[in-house]
Amino acid sequence: MTRKKTFLVFFLLLVAFSVALSMEQINEVSKTNTVVIDGENITYTVTAGLLPVADQNGKEMVRIFSVSYERLLEREDPSRPVTFAFNGGPGVAAMFLHFGAFGPRVADRSGDGAEIPAPPYSLVDNPYTLLDVTDLVFVDPVGTGYSEVADGIDPQRFWDVKEDVAVFAGFIQSYLDWSGRRRSPVYILGESYGGIRGSYLASYLQDFGIFPEGIIFISPVFDLGTIQWSSMDDTALALSIPTYTAAAWYHGKLPAYLMTDLQKAIDSSREWVEEEYIVSLWKGSELSEERKWATASKLSDFTGIDAEVLYKRGLRVNAVEFATLLLEEEGRSLSMYDARITAFGPYVGDSNDETMFALSGQLKTCANDYFKRELGYLTALPYRSGNAEVYLNWNWESGRPAPVSPDSLNTGYPDASKALAQAITRAPYFKVFVASGRFDLECPYESVAYSLNHLEIPQSLQKNITHKVYPGGHMIYFNPQ
User: Fold this and answer.
1) Which pTM does this prediction carry?
2) 290 class by beta-carbon count within 10 Å (0-12 exposed, 13-18 middle, 19+ buried)
3) For domain 3-226+360-478, is the CATH number 3.40.50.1820?
4) Considering the chain, what is the average pLDDT of its residues?
5) Is 89 left (phi over 0), alpha (psi -120 to 50) or beta?
């Protein structure tokens, strides 16, 4: 498919989901509340409901559930931004960002983020909500939250990289029209897989006549080839090692010379990976026995894993293996979402990942209580915080980069880097802020940095990108600081 044809297909996808059936939300509930931010009482209106999105013929396709927060002002302010927030998965509702980070009501947390909360659970006012500077809209993709498809429509149709983005673009246009916010500055906020969704979305909205001013990414992935749950390429493996070092340091498993200072240990790890480790991986079976043992010994220093184990595994330990091996003698495993947190037994997935299991339980409880008791959103359906069926049936094919020439194949991993670069290049005012967690094994911060450092954008626009690393995991906002 030529580049011109590819653009046309993507544009038509956007048009196909751009029409709202009406200017009213379905099952809408609204309430006024107040939150204190920096000593100031902020009064806001919260509105929850389903907004229909239709195809170009006006036929209803989906009803997207969202919760919006608008600050009540004495007079209309067209310069006040509106930020559209979503989580990742794919197949995850906006629950984590909504009740864990940026909503005016969040789950009660304490400590440094490495503590697992116990029932009973409750929501508290959030002094760190973004509501003082922007209105907020938390959006649940098809198959999550209370979002639904129209009768006779197969939901799996929308479980697709590009179809998903098209629905989001249609929803945003419909929301701006419904709420009378066409003049408002638009921002995007995405977490995890939200890196791919948000990058494509920013570029597509520009094609759509909606021009975001910026985007916030939390623990994102832009190129699935840079993270291990989709790739065991040398690059993906090497980019994980500094995160292994941080985790091993936290649990006291590094040699004494590396335990004195975390940042120095990480810097040494990164330098060694760049200069020696990646070279050893590159050589493969051509690597001499002496060099292989030397590499295994140094890799052991930076990961806390026994050198003989590393040697026998060909100098390769993926993130799940690392999560199991580091504390194996203590009978514990690390969380992939926050390597500071541990659980009993080997790592087997989200079911025994202490971070995901415990935090999901807390947030699900709070979300269902909030919607039904605090807001009075009446439905017999439970709030679907996550949907494994969506993830397992997701079509990644449409997210792969376009072939380099018309007669070549569309191969490789889904990668939204070009879309993000396009959004930045076309709008010099467009700003990107990226936050990563130092102990995140799912989307290691070096993988994020690698993608950002390889964006094909002019040097003069590099200043529009900010990447910060924080002392937390995948959901860094659970650290109070």
Assistant:
1) 0.91
2) exposed
3) yes
4) 89
5) left
